[in-house]
Amino acid sequence: MARKKLNKQDALDYHSQGRPGKIEVVPTKNTKTQWDLSLAYSPGVAEPCKEIHRDVENVYKYTAKGNLVAVISNGTAVLGLGDIGPEAGKPVMEGKGVLFKIFADIDVFDIELNTRDVDEFVQVVKALEPTFGGINLEDIKSPECFAIEERLKKELKIPIMHDDQHGTAIISGAALLNALELVKKKIEKVKFVVNGAGAAAMACVKLYVALGAKHENFIMFDKNGVINKSRTDLTDMHMQFATTSKITELGVAMKGADVFIGLSVGNVVTPEMIKGMAKQPIVFAMANPDPEIAYEAAIAARPDIIFATGRSDHPNQVNNVLGFPYIFRGALDVRATQINEAMKLAAVRALADLAKEPVPDIVNLAYNERNLYFSPNYIIPKPLDPRLLCMVAPAVARAAIDSGVAQKRIENWEAYYEELNHRLGLDNQLFRIIGNKARKDPRKVVFAEADNLKVLKAAQVVRDEGIAHPILLGDESRIRQLADDNGIEIEDIEIIDPKSEEMSAKRHHFGDLFFQKRQRKGFNKYEAGKIMRERNYFGCMMVETGEADALISGLTRKYPDTIRPALQVIGMEEGAKRVAGMYIINTKRGPLFLADTTVNFNPTAEEIAEITMMVAKEVRLFNMVPRIAMVSYSNFGSSPTPEAQLMSKARDLVKKMDPTLVVDGEIQAAMAFNQEILKDSYPFSELVGEEVNTLIFPNLSAGNIAYNLLQEVAGFDAIGPVLLGMKKPVHILQLGSTVRQIVNMVNIAVVDAQHKCCHSEATAGVTKKKRK
Ligand SMILES: NC(=O)C1=CN([C@@H]2O[C@H](COP(=O)(O)OP(=O)(O)OC[C@H]3O[C@@H](n4cnc5c(N)ncnc54)[C@H](OP(=O)(O)O)[C@@H]3O)[C@@H](O)[C@H]2O)C=CC1
Ligand SMILES: CC(=O)C(=O)O
Ligand SMILES: [Mg+2]
Hints:
Blueprint: H1 8-16, H2 34-40, H3 46-54, H4 59-62, E1 68-73, H5 86-104, E2 107-112, H6 118-127, E3 134-137, H7 144-155, E4 160-162, H8 163-183, E5 192-195, H9 199-210, E6 218-222, E7 225-226, H10 236-240, H11 250-254, E8 259-262, H12 271-275, E9 282-285, H13 295-301, E10 306-309, H14 324-333, H15 341-354, H16 361-366, H17 387-402, H18 413-424, H19 427-440, E11 443-447, H20 453-464, E12 468-473, H21 476-485, E13 494-496, H22 504-518, H23 525-530, H24 535-545, E14 550-553, H25 559-569, E15 580-587, E16 590-595, H26 605-621, E17 627-632, H27 642-657, E18 662-668, H28 669-672, H29 675-681, E19 694-696, H30 700-712, E20 717-724, E21 730-732, H31 739-763
Parallel strand pairs: 1-2, 1-3, 3-4, 5-6, 5-8, 8-9, 9-10, 11-12, 11-14, 12-13, 14-21, 16-19, 17-18, 17-19
Antiparallel strand pairs: 6-7, 15-16, 15-20
Helix pairs in contact: 5-14, 6-7, 8-9, 8-15, 14-17, 15-17, 19-31, 20-31, 24-25, 26-27
The structure holds NADPH dihydro-nicotinamide-adenine-dinucleotide phosphate, pyruvic acid and magnesium ion.
Family: In the N-terminal section; belongs to the malic enzymes family.
Region (Disordered): 1-23
Binding site for NADP(+): 78-85, 288
């Protein structure tokens, strides 16, 4: 299924729905009690004020300055949209703020200035210096951007970077080095044509020269044509790259050129121009949002091309998002006074090197790729690569220290890497990855409650996002009416009404199959046929017979009423003695897996051990190593009660079943997450030095209460309950789940179906069939 093409309305809705825009300010300290408030504000706040007044360096200790970057623009060169003004540029600046946060945990205030005057711009930014740890200048047109950056660099003591210049130069420089390596051309020999002579283009050519390219091998163009010595409208900077050749046309310049760099506007290069380039041409068409030539046209023009754009929907995204979060992270972490050439070159090398490393599964999954490797279609790391932070930021920090612009040294690099890893967490990643894994091989998912608005919306989302092929169960006219009334498009989604006359043969068939299963378990033939009018039975039978791959239900019914048909029709997977419910809580420290939250009331130690083994298997499905705490109210025998001993006995049984599993207890939840106390008090524990990601509870009440509190009070996002131990994927929603929670469950169901299908076919010795 092709992914839905992004349209104008999607983008507008994304920005306008809920709280308008993409960002908000969130306090980092407790603010709940009067006591908290008297610390946060008057009178307590006076103390840090006095400390900073005594020594201004303390501003880094007592305020957010050290992790706060200003993204500042006047809206004069916004993407390739041009001079659209500060307000119109604000969505881009908020977007940069989002990227800073999610990729490098840097907080951003976006600031849009209503001035085109260099002096005024500089004056305002200078006055902002006390607030910020760094300044990211963005989308300011040339030539003003050069003077603004130069003056601010001279006059301020915090790192300043004009992202469109240096971010772009660094990323494209890394991509260029790698592309040249692949085509075995030397940078000092290759001929460049550069379209655009603005902020980004000028900085790129300067950096390429620093990397070894020769001035005389560049021909540049701006809106008025070729940059040559005879022009009288050029700046000194342009003049450095002005050609003496007679060429005036872009197409002529591109004949025989090795490298084309586009940093201008969309669709100004034709396939013919590309056809005329040298062997194995390198073309970086980086204008946003539309490149100088579309991906399809460029690839069709030259099969031997190495092609990159600034966009995410094709291979080789050369976009400054690969740079600015990590460059600033490194600069802030050593309190660099500037971002200098050594730091930029360190970032180039780190990025270029990372593209040659084996690509982890997590990146392949995130991009729906089977096997990314250093090649013409992968010359630069992918923006969702979690290794970027740990590769680029330390390289930049080290270069700052070595080149003498760092005000703080990093003594323990191992601890620094750990801190960086911690900043990211796996939280957002997990959701992105499950989604991408599902999209790789979408499956047929039956929605038993399709006459519910939230379910219907979720079905549309999973269809549009290419996660699943939904099948809706229920009264067709009611479902269509609901869809019409709420603007939900379901034209191409299959709807089945199990009660309809049309389904009578299928009902009988399913009834017969069900009777065979349950004839000695309290169902007579008549009842078995009649019960197929119920959507949960009918849907489960579709999954059982392979007409669908997974079932989602339970939003509007009690849990036992939904799980019963699933157990009667589908049953447990081979070898499983029970089913169990697991929740995934999306915390800042990473995902937490909680069980049993929904099925087994008061399990024995043996039963808890089995549940633990099922959970461990599921956690591995998410490419994670389970690190399990068997939680209780006591620590390692500190209470002699049978309730506490239950968990320690269960732990022993788990260790017998799988000695390699990292699992310990009984342990209090707080102790499981407090490495310092754990190390001091219980140094023998397997959990010392391990970040716990799985909690097994002694009974259903405890598990259920814990996830509810985490979700409702702590406000964490949760997926669940994920039903473990079923033969085929049936997932039962909690009453009142949101659309996003339903979509998340569908993701899990599809991934589960992919896994269970491969598993059963592999055991049966059948080759996996390719699905539509
Ligand atoms: N992929 C990435 O990471 C990045 C991409 N970009 C993209 O690069 C482009 C330029 O950005 P930026 O340098 O910040 O903006 P500037 O406004 O500073 O520069 C734009 C340049 O493009 C030139 N230009 C405009 N139209 C044409 C044309 N038809 N033919 C040749 N040259 C033309 C302008 O010429 P003149 O000087 O005569 O006006 C100017 O030199 C944008 O599309 C932007 O999205 C920018 C940064 C990062
Ligand atoms: C990516 C970017 O910064 C731009 O296109 O302006
Ligand atoms: Mg930009």
